[in-house]
Structure formats: structure tokens, C-alpha cells
Amino acid sequence: MAKIEVIKRSGMREPFKAEKVRKAVMRAGASEKLAEKVVEKVKRNIYDGITTNEIYNIAFKFLDKERYSIASLYDLKRAIMRLGPAGYSFETYIGEILREHNHRVMVRQILRGMCVEHEIDIISYNGSNGYTLIECKYHNKEGIYTGLKPVLYTYARYLDLCERWESDRDCIRFGSVMLVTNTKFSSKAIQYAKCRGIELLGWRYPKDNGINSLIESKGLYPLTILRKIDPVSKRKFADANIMLIKDLVYMKLEELSMKTNIPENKLRDIVDEAKNIIY
Questions:
Q1: pTM of the model as a whole
Q2: Measured between alpha carbons, how far is 203 from 196 in angstroms, rounded to an integer?
Q3: What is the CATH topology of the domain spanning 226-278?
């Protein structure tokens, strides 16, 4: 194959690497055999200057025909970006993920700092680690990095609340601070966070323990990963505070219908899709 360069979402060019495609689809649950078929499909359709988005679409459409459930898992990053338009808040989703990983969580809390009041996205408590102040930065478009600015204002809030505790011990004492995003962090954001001891949680960051790993390790997939669900039903699930597809699987249809006001015959198709993804 002649040298092929790919245009990333940042506009930068890099050589096409088949191994990246193979690893991505295998992370979604594809077998080595199926992953190799995807790679071959991509190779037959790529050209010099192809975008990463085009490569993604080639792989996704092929998976969709071969294994519908794996295509849905391959679509996880975009499913998270669909949370906002579907009526879900990103901080609520992150709170659910942390609860499943044994954190005690409070979402959207108002706390007074030394200088001003702050609306904190998440307060997490995890045993010996104490309380963590967590701010969430959500993006609903691909190719956007979470840069230095959100890290700076997250740390400023943390300092103001810590200073309040020094003057008034009758309030929460935060032992750590974290910024969570559904995309990647810029190099400056990472550099500053390391310098100040700020924890970062993003897409594939830290390596092997990013937000995607926390989701995949416990099957904490959002309802927006389902593709047989219409916008009206998504809104009804959101209004009923049902966010994870695993909740659909473990709840009786009658109870689910009462909570969402969605007919059981319609719910049955949605639940079947959820089961195919989880199992």
C-alpha cells in the first residue's frame, strides 16, 4: 500500500495505522477475526488525506452490518456526546459512574467559599481519600480538547473552599480536586494539573484508566448508546431519571412502563437491544 496520511480532527496529518483501527474495534468487543475484516474494509476505502471521521464511519457501518451490538459499543464516545441533547446532564452520568465504583456522591451542591459561593458539580467521598471536589467539562462535538482554562478555574474554586475550611472548620474539608471531561486534555492542561496535584479524568486519560475504562469495566453504558429508541422515549427516560441501560435490563417491563409512561410493547424492543449490548 502506498503511503497514506490521515487528517486528524485537529487538522494535523499522520500516517495511517491499521493497528489503531484494530485496537478500537476490539475494545468494543470484536473478535480478532472480525477486527481484521474491519481493517481490510477500511484499507479498501482509504485514500491519502482521508479524515479520521471518515475512517470511523467506514468501520462503524461495517460493524453495524456484521454485529449490531458491537457497533453500538464502538459508538460509545459519540453516545456520551448525545447526553445533553437527550436531556441528561453529564455530571449526573459521572455521578452514576462513581457510585458504581464505590464512591459516595452528591451532585450539584452549593457551597460557600472564603470569597464567594460555588455551585459544585460533584462532591465525592471515598473512604480514606476523604472528600474530592469534582468539576465536569462536557463537550457535544468531537475534536475539542479540554484546555488550560477549565483546569485553572477548577483549582481556583478548590483553593477558595479550602481557605474557607481554614477559617471555619464547620464545613467540608476537601482533600483533593478533579476535573472530568468526555474528551481529551490539552498538553498545557495536563502539565498544569501535574504541577498542582489536580486529578484529571478524560477520554483514555489516564492511560488504561480513563472515563471509557470506568464505563466499560462495569457496563455503565448510557441510554444514548441505544439506536432503536426515539427522541420522545429518550426524554421520558430522562424525566424518570433512568440513565444506564443496565437499569432497563434489571427492571420489570411493567414497572418500567409505569415510571416512563412508555407502552410495554415499545419497551420490549428497547430492552432487547440493551440486553444484546450488555450480554
A1: 0.91
A2: 21
A3: DNA polymerase; domain 1 (1.10.150)
